[in-house]
Amino acid sequence: MSYAIGGQGSGDFKETSARVQIFHVVTRNSLGLLTPDAFTQSNPPVVTGQVSTTLASISKVGVLGGTVAFTRPDYGNNFHGGAVKPGGSYSTGLKPLGIYINDALGNAYENTPGVASGRGPYLCGSGSCLGLSVYETKSQITPGTTITYQPGNLVYASVNGLLTNILADAYEQNASSGTATIMGVVKVAPDANSSLLVIDLRV
Is the whole model's pTM more than 0.85, yes or no? Predict the structure, then answer.
């Protein structure tokens, strides 16, 4: 089952949205409210010098399917959204909750439930298995470092709200909030056969 797939042409398919392929899911959490910037953030939202190659064809703003949902106490109780760097520093109040299922703005010619409801469901629950089309391919803290994934790698929420296997790039590490939350374990690394990063969730 796949979510948030861009429009298809006859022979010139170009994916303009992020995609989540769900193999097994424990929880689709739709309790919280999206922050206003969940509909307007740029992609990437925080560090722009080392842009993930998986975002190359995506110009859409707002949180994307496959990106990390964070608690957002800066907006109040029961809000969640993407990664931010308020006042030029990382906030210890942002903790990763799970992986967004859909782009907040939806897709052209489709219903836009996020805009209509103000809610953005995310996947959580240890044991969920999913494939992601967006993830970090370059280090955000150590420019010039290319990321490669291997089965068994632990993955974290990066400073841009994408998954990364580089602990130093984890949002929580840069917020000095202690040990970074383990988002999951890589089951299948991207390769020549598939560009998806397949993980077992642990959050």
Answer: yes
